[in-house]
Design goal:
- By secondary structure, the chain is of the alpha/beta class.
- 48% of the residues lie in helices and 17% in strands.
- The protein has 13 helices and eight strands.
- The strands form two sheets. It has a five-stranded mixed sheet.
- The longest helix has 18 residues.
- The radius of gyration is 21 Å and the shape is globular.
- The N and C termini lie far apart (47 Å).
- The model has no long low-confidence stretch (mean pLDDT 94).
Length: 280
């Protein structure tokens, strides 16, 4: 079958034409060379069929990339690694809080704030240069779920209630300037338009361009523990339960691997992956 006529089924169940150039770009964005990307893409080109899912293509590409370079494969699998932080949203909130710290903010995760009408729990409170920001983190464990306009509508109403109380309280030295909404999937077009209209800052997996979740994780090397290929699913779950959310936190608490009775040979492999992934 003509490769240009093959349709790919996305997570949303929408279909699009298979693009070998788009596949190559996604491979190169995680660090693979042009030659590696070309070889992998050409192999996949001979394996795809009509109505193949994006998940199937990703799985094939991931396994081929893993044979070339485990770190490139880890980065390629980043989006799914974030999904695997669930089922609760706390690990994602901690990831966002740490990310903002690296951008110069003072942050607190899980803060209770009074509003003019009711009390609210804020996922992350960030402060910088005399301003404070109330941040809601909308974590989804399913790639098919996007945040529609109802989410920013709700978040903005909460923010306005908190803002009235905060800025009228003389004990607060910072001005509560803006509400933010951060998700690990995507926003619908209506949600993006509404956010721009009312001044609610939005961030998703690939939005805004150059300052998305993916961009920031790659820029600061703040990869979640679920990114690591040399850890089993059970080991990742154990580490998350011990509040080890980020790869760099594992590097700073290496002794925990011994306490988990992981063999010395595997520990070497895990730490080699950690240091290469995070450029430590």
């Amino acid at each position: 079958m003509d490769i240009e006529k093959i349709l790919v089924k996305k997570n949303s169940n929408e279909k699009e034409t298979f693009s070998i150039n788009k596949l190559k770009q996604s491979l190169e964005s995680c660090g693979s060379t042009k030659k590696q990307s070309d070889n992998i893409a050409n192999t996949i080109k001979n394996l795809v069929y009509n109505n193949i899912t994006t998940n199937e293509i990703h799985k094939i590409a991931f396994n081929l990339l893993k044979q070339e370079n485990t770190v490139f494969a880890s980065k390629y699998n980043l989006k799914r690694a974030i999904f695997n932080l669930g089922p609760t949203g706390y690990p994602f909130e901690k990831l966002v809080g740490t990310l903002l710290k690296r951008k110069g903010y003072e942050t607190k995760v899980g803060v209770i704030l009074d509003g003019e009408c009711v009390t609210h729990e804020i996922d992350v409170l960030a402060e910088k240069n005399g301003n404070a920001y109330a941040i809601e983190c909308k974590f989804h464990a399913n790639a098919t779920i996007n945040s529609d306009v109802k989410i920013p509508l709700y978040i903005n109403s909460r923010f306005l209630d908190i803002q009235k109380q905060w800025n009228s309280n003389s004990n607060n030295k910072n001005n509560l300037k803006q509400g933010w909404l951060i998700t690990n999937t995507r926003f619908t077009d209506d949600a993006l338009r509404y956010g721009k209209c009312i001044g609610l800052s939005l961030m998703s997996w690939d939005y805004p361009l150059g300052n998305s979740i993916k961009n920031n994780i790659d820029s600061f090397g703040l990869y979640p523990i679920t990114t690591l290929i040399n850890l089993s699913k059970e080991e990742k779950t154990t580490l998350i339960s011990k509040d080890i959310i980020l790869v760099k936190e594992l590097y700073e608490n290496k002794i925990i691997l011994e306490k988990m009775q992981i063999t010395s040979g595997r520990i070497v492999n895990i730490l080699d992956e950690v240091t290469e992934l995070c450029k430590i």
